[in-house]
Amino acid sequence: MKPHGYILILGFFTAFVVVLLTMPSLIKVARMKHLVDEPGDQRKLHQRSVPTIGGIIIFAAILFSYSLWFPEAAAIGYRDMGFKHLYLAMGGAPKDLTSLVAAMVLLFFMGVKDDIIGFSPVKKLVGHMVVGYILVVMADIRIRDMHGLFGVYELNDAFSIGFSLFVYVVLVNAFNLIDGIDGLAGGIGCISAIAYGAWLFMAGDVALALLAMVLGGALLGFLVFNFHPARIFMGDSGSLIIGAIIAVLAMKVVDYDPDKLPGWLERVPTPLFAMAVIAYPLVDTFRIFIHRASRGVSPFAADRNHIHHRLMAHGLGHRGTTLVLFLYSITIIVLSLITRDLHPNKGLMVLGVTALVLALLPFAIPLRQKKE
After folding, report:
1. Which candidate, 175, 191, 194, 219, places its Cα nearest to that of 326?
2. What is the three-class DSSP state of 227?
3. How far apart are CA 202 and CA 50, in angstroms?
4. What whole-number distance in Å separates Cα of residue 251 and Cα of residue 254?
C-alpha cells in the first residue's frame, strides 16, 4: 500500500465505528415509535416486525467520516500531482464532490419520507430528475468516453449527458430492487465500494477513493445489524444513497483517462471493470424487467422473481443466498481483471456470458418437490 493509504483505512474504520456505536440506539427509537415493517405481505420474507430506517445512520456515518478526513485526502491527492497548496487555493472541496453531498442530502430526505409515510411515484420521479441534474449537469459527473467498447470512443455532450442520467437512474433503482433479503444490498454495496475504492486509489484519486471506502466501512458496520436475522433494514433512505454513490464512482471509473493509470491497471478496460463491479444489480434488474415486460406486467411491479428469491426457493436460506451472491460478485470482478488483455468487445462477451449463465443457473435447476 502507498504511504498515504492510511487515510483510506481511517475513513473506513471511522464510518464502521460510527455505525456500530449508533445503530443500536436507532433500532430502539424505531421500535418505540413503531417505525417498522410488519410481516404479512406474501412478498416479505421476514417473520417479525423490523425497523426500516437504517439508512439514517448509514448516511450520517458517510457524511461525518468523509467530512472529517476529506481535507487530508484532498491535500494528499493534490500534493501527489505537484500542487501542494491547490486545495487551499481553491477554497475547499471540488465542485463535483460538494454537488454530490447536495444530491445525497436530497436523496436522504426523499428516502426517509418514503420509509416513514410513503412518497408518490410522481414526486419521486421529480426528485430523481433534480438529483440527476445536480450530478450530471451541475457537477459534470458523466461518461464521456467508452474507450473502444462497441467501437465507440468519445461521446458528444448531448449523448453523454443522456446516457449518464440513464446510468444514474438504473443504478439507484437496481440497488433498491436487490434490497430484498437480509444483508444482500448492504453486502453487494460494500463489495462494490471497496472494489471501486481500491481502483481509484491505485489510479491516484485519493479523495474519491476515500468516499468509496467510507461507504464500504458504513455498510460493513450496517451488516452487523442487517445480516440474517436482520435487526434493522436500510430502507429507501439507505438504498438511494448507496445507488447514487455507486453510480458516481462507476461513472468516474469509466471516464478515467487510461494513460494516467499505473502499470497493469492501464490494460483493464474501464467500462468493463465498472460494469463487472456492479454485475449482480445490473443483471438482476434487467432480467426482472424483461421477465415482467414479457408477461405484460409493469416493470416496476413488485414480485418474487428475483435471483435471490429463486436461490431461497432452492433452500439456501438468507445467509446461504447472500454468501452465494457475494461470491458471484467477487468472481465477475476478478474475471474482469483476468481478461484485461482481451479486446474490450471480447472481454464484454466473456464477462456478459459468464454473468448471465451464472445468474440464470438457479432458474435452470428444477426445484425440489416438497413431500406431502
Report:
1. 191
2. coil
3. 40
4. 5
